[in-house]
Design goal:
single chain; alpha/beta; Isoprenyl transferase; binds farnesyl diphosphate; Undecaprenyl pyrophosphate synthetase
């Protein structure tokens, strides 16, 4: 698909590590929670942009299995923000034909929050235009362990296990692997995110803090992605 004056290759799936909310707040002498709140605004804009550009899947890292170790007041603020964001955004997402999935160990959340997440997933499950996957209480290693447990519980014969079968036991079953992984706030780490799924993703890291990441920044990332040659382990000659 093309867009604007230059030829853009639109990724089918973009995954994002939304980093830098705390630094954004600190620079303004605001509490960290203010950075997260602004982060929800940025996410709203990026979901809308993905819908406009034609990116089918957007997967964001909202809360890791390690984030429980943050100060109690920040964890509480994040839980309240998730609840508030679902309440405020879900109707609009549904109207825009976006399917939302909360993926991770969602049993770890309060009963109210878990119910709210399940309700949002139920409401939007038949939507087709776009997919927003929100990784919560998520860790790539935890996901792999959970998949192995399910495979054992299902008594899958070891001879039947291949990459396709294994993928179908991950939280992201049925969702194509990300083509592009974006990390904001200039950190050169994967941070336990989608360890299996990003095997061949192109990585784009920007200095921009997540609350400042907007449609223009997204297009910049897609422009750089469009210049990359994806080889999937082959030589340049084999893929042209
Ligand atoms: C990382 O920035 C960001 C998070 C841990 C939270 C991200 C969550 C949101 C933007 C809310 C999304 C909400 C919904 C409902 C999808 P950081 O705090 O690690 O920043 P720092 O590295 O600058 O301290």
């Amino acid at each position: 698909m093309t867009s604007g004056s230059c030829n853009l290759k639109i990724p089918r799936h973009i995954a994002i590590i939304m980093d830098g909310n705390g630094r954004w707040a600190k620079k303004r002498m605001l509490p960290r929670a203010a950075g997260h709140k602004k982060g929800v605004d940025a996410l709203r804009e990026i979901v809308k942009a993905c819908n406009e550009i034609g990116v089918k899947h957007l997967t964001v890292y909202a809360f890791s299995t390690e984030n429980w170790a943050r100060p109690k007041e920040e964890v509480t603020a994040l839980m309240n923000l998730f609840m508030e964001a679902i309440n405020n955004e879900i109707k609009k997402l549904h109207k825009n034909d976006v399917r939302i999935r909360f993926l991770g160990r969602i049993d770890g959340f309060s009963k109210n929050l878990k119910e709210k997440m399940v309700e949002a997933m139920e409401l939007t499950k038949n939507n087709k235009r776009g997919n927003l996957n929100v990784m919560v209480n998520y860790g790539g290693r935890a996901e792999i362990i959970d998949a192995i447990k399910k495979i054992i519980d299902d008594k899958v014969p070891s001879d039947n296990i291949d990459e396709t079968i294994f993928s179908s036991y991950l939280y992201t079953a049925g969702i194509p692997d990300p083509d592009l992984l974006i990390r904001t706030a200039d950190e050169m780490r994967i941070s336990n995110y989608l360890l299996w799924q990003i095997a061949y993703s192109e990585i784009y890291i920007t200095k921009t803090l997540w609350p400042d990441f907007d449609k223009k920044e997204l297009i910049k990332a897609i422009e750089e992605y469009s210049q990359r040659e994806r080889k999937f382990g082959k030589t340049s000659e084999q893929i042209t």
